[in-house]
Amino acid sequence: MNSNESKLTHLEWAIKSRHSNQTCALNLLRLFEGYEELWKTQKLARAAQDLTAVTFSLWRAAFPADKTGKRAEVFGHGKAFLERLIEDNSISYPQDKNSNEWTFNYYTRNARSSLQVLSEYWPTEVPRYVGKTRNATERWDYCQHLLDDAVAGFEKLLQQRKSKAG
Fold first, then answer.
1. Is the dihedral of CA 74, 76, 82, 87 positive or negative?
2. SS (H, E, C) 8-19
3. What ranges do the domains of the chain cover?
4. Which of 26-40, 106-120, 152-166 has the lowest mean pLDDT?
5. Please, what's the b/e burial string for 98-123 (b: 16 or more CB within 10 A of its CB; e: otherwise)?
6. Spatial separation of the C-alpha atoms in residues 162 and 166, rounded to whole Å
């Protein structure tokens, strides 16, 4: 596959992935709107924060997923990211994209961490993250699948709690 085909393949994946993530974000927002009083409890408020964190992290990680994964590249991009942060006192999407070897890992690790916390506290609603070697797009797809399952699990939980209260 030449570099133009590779780029188009990645862009196609990124667009489909962002669509999947945006659909999940909309489903989550519907749950926030439809079950607002339930989300205000301490335990569910934490879950809402974690679900939002995973959604944002994966949304941001979709486009910089075209990375090599080489340690030297990750280190170099991390260093460049820190230089931008210090020099400009600002980070925006172009800096995220230009430092994709590091930023992709950052965002997917955030997603993984929040998914692990959710699974610990809500094991019947959120499947456990199973660590294994995955390339960038496989890691993203896996986290998004877990997020989709988590949102569906919380919808069932909220429906149950609402019917018990009502």
1. negative
2. HHHHHHHHHHHH
3. 3-165
4. 152-166
5. ebbbbbbbbbbebbbebbebbbeebe
6. 6
Q: What is the mean pLDDT of the chain?
A: 93
Between residues 106 and 4, the one the model is more confident about: 106
Per-residue pLDDT, averaged over 119-124, amounts to: 95
- On the 0-12 / 13-18 / 19+ scale of CB atoms within 10 A, 53 is middle
User: CA 126 to CA 148: how far, in whole Å?
Assistant: 9
Q: What angle do CA 79, 99, 11 make, to 5 degrees?
A: 165
Q: How many residues does the chain have?
A: 166
The end-to-end CA distance of the chain, in Å, is 58
Q: Which of 19-33, 59-73, 140-154 has the lowest mean pLDDT?
A: 59-73
CA 32 to chain centre: 18
pTM of the model: 0.92
Instruction: Give the residue from 24, 20, 27, 35 showing the smallest Cα distance to 65.
Output: 20
